[in-house]
């Protein structure tokens, strides 16, 4: 198994950040196997989603609808409504495992690997790539 951790600057507002290019670079010298992507944070997740056509903004809207940033959350440190950020990984998990075939991630035509970060209090995230040979 081979691993690498990258740093992603997500900024101070909710974001869907495409990390596909970094993942592709990581597996480029590999053959067949599995790419495991993990975000070691309690307030971020990973989604396989189309980007650039509005789906990334739609995902953020859906998160706001499902988990509104209100003061109703029991977990109450950080920005207003920050407790909802700690609930996010129950819906958008902090991991994804993807097939790699001949050094290429077997994504669908419009699929991208995205870091989903609703937490503006933590503008820097780590993402760990691990390759498991087949």
UniProtKB/TrEMBL annotation:
<dbReference type="InterPro" id="IPR035917">
    <property type="entry name" value="YjbQ-like_sf"/>
</dbReference>
<dbReference type="Pfam" id="PF01894">
    <property type="entry name" value="YjbQ"/>
</dbReference>
<comment type="similarity">
    <text>Belongs to the UPF0047 family.</text>
</comment>
<dbReference type="InterPro" id="IPR001602">
    <property type="entry name" value="UPF0047_YjbQ-like"/>
</dbReference>
<protein>
    <recommendedName>
        <fullName>Secondary thiamine-phosphate synthase enzyme</fullName>
    </recommendedName>
</protein>
